Fold this protein.
Amino acid sequence: MPELSKKLTNFTDSVIRRMTRIANQHGAVNLSQGFPDFDPPQALKEALANVASGSIHQYAVTWGAPNFRKALAKKQSFFMGIEIDPETQIAVTCGSTEAMIASMLTVCNPGDKVIVFSPFYENYTADTILSGAIPIYVHLKPPYYNFDVEELEAAFQQKPKALILCNPSNPSGKVYTLEELQIIAAYAIKYDVFVITDEVYEHIVYEPFHHVYIASLPGMFERTISCSSLSKTYSITGWRLGYVIAPAFIIDGVRKVHDFLTVGAASPLQEAAITALEFGPDYYLQLQKSYTEKKDFFLKGLDDLGLKFTIPQGAYYVMVDVSEFGASNDVEFCEWLACEVGVAAVPGSSFFQEEVHHLIRFHFAKNLETLSSALKALENLRPLAEKKIWSKQTLAD
Ligand code: GLN
């Protein structure tokens, strides 16, 4: 048989989604792949039911139904503080996953370099490989995940085409400060580099932190490709509604790539989601309140169990330091945790370019009852870990 593409040898299937399969297999509480176990707002479900019995069932305009783009432009203009033209500056995609790969394919030629902060959401590796780009990693050092300005400038000096910015950040929970964003922006302008954002957690930020859209900084809209989605904001990860916002000349390119990748996002879902895009400011305050409650509840539980972690500033993940349990391999640790303790997490190494094997990621986008069952199960972690003999496998094996 002919060989498959060499590109496939450079990345694995998603470790996050693999952990979900392991969780299902063992009936573990799934705190690995980040998605809610609660419903979207009632008004949104009703809108979907109404659309289902109506007549919007064929393709929408490939880059997004006009009324969806109009509602999205209004909402994002309000939050981003930038006037966005729905006619020329938006492409609607199948989730932020497509938004990002379409953006990468739009700006990168094979061999172009792209700056990626490590730890990073695992899709960025596949995105760079599929678009032929070469990542330059800039390290965010645990437990505080700050970057070194000199290391960042050295990366910019290598003439990258783009920088990927996940803010609020998955998996670290970092929310970049205005000062950090100004540093990144100054280099992007000085070295003439695009910034591709992943801002799917834009509305999940904990006091006293605030999300600043890098596109809103002076001189940055021109070179920022803002990717996001409705998944996390409205608890509709299965609807696969994402988008890219950028200047018209970039959006022209993204629309072309998107047209041949997927043609378009589901038209009935775009129509129904307009209801969500028209929610008032109260909705976003309530969302923040509800996630703050989940975070406080879960972190207090982890703290009571004596576990060490970095307090997230945004998004819905927490990185827990499991070095005290003596496993040399976080993948083995997470598999054991799912099978024996009954809670699924993601091994931290799948997010780091560096050799980091002492962290695991839990998410807390779950009902308090679910989080409570996870904490209850984790009470057994220490007693079971004391009896566990870890494999002698070294990290080089
Ligand atoms: N962003 C989610 C996570 O990091 C997963 C998203 C997905 O699987 N598409 O867990």
Observations:
- The mean pLDDT is 96.
- The CA atoms of residues 329 and 357 lie 6 Å apart.
- Residues 16-17, 33-34, 97, 121, 170 surround glutamine (CB under 6 Å).
- The chain has 13 helices and 13 strands.
